[in-house]
Amino acid sequence: MSFFFPAGHYWAAWVTIGALVVPIGAKASIIRLAVSRRAPDRAVPAGPGVGRRGFLATVAGAAGVLTLPTVGQTVRPCAGCRCSRRASRRSGPRATR
User: Fold this and answer.
1) pLDDT at position 76
2) Is 61 helix (H, G, I), strand (E, B) or coil?
3) What is the DSSP letter of 91?
4) Which residues contact 46 (CB under 8 A, 6 or more apart)?
5) Which of 64, 83, 63 is nearest to 73 (CA)?
6) Long-range contacts, stretch 68-75, CB < 8 angstroms, 24+ apart
7) pTM: predicted TM-score of the whole model, two decimal places
8) Phi-psi category of residue 92: left, alpha or beta, with phi > 0 → left and psi -120 to 50 → alpha
């Protein structure tokens, strides 16, 4: 029996997604309480800069921005977006003609 590379990676991706979703889902209520809770009064006052909610928003925004260029290759309605097109093989240094 031979190993089929695309199918193996497809199933490995599902295992990885499950390995991320299950623990996060199990701790979702704890995470929600920790993020929404106000800091105790005895805590050191935060200096100038971004708080933890701002940091989480920045990380989520950066992940979304990095995901956008690849979405057009998977989701058909987004395929026309210029940032999600594959490079043309008809022009440039990798031209095949």
Assistant:
1) 74
2) helix
3) S
4) 39
5) 83
6) none
7) 0.39
8) left
Cα–Cα distance between 77 and 28 in angstroms, integer?
A: 32
Which secondary-structure segment (H or E) carries 58? helix 52-71
Q: Which pLDDT tens digit goes with each residue over 31-52?
A: 888 888 765 656 565 667 778 8
Cβ–Cβ < 8 Å for 81, 67: no
Which tokens sit at 42?
């005895």
Separation between Cα atoms, residue 40 and residue 58, nearest integer Å: 24
The two tokens of residue 65 are 């921005």
Q: What angle do CA 30, 24, 70 make, to 5 degrees?
A: 135
Residue type, 96: T
Structural tokens at position 97: 């003609």
- The answer to whether 79 and 72 are in contact (CB under 8 A) is yes
Residue with tokens 């979703």: 21
The angle subtended at Cα 27 by Cα 36 and Cα 40, nearest 5°, is 30
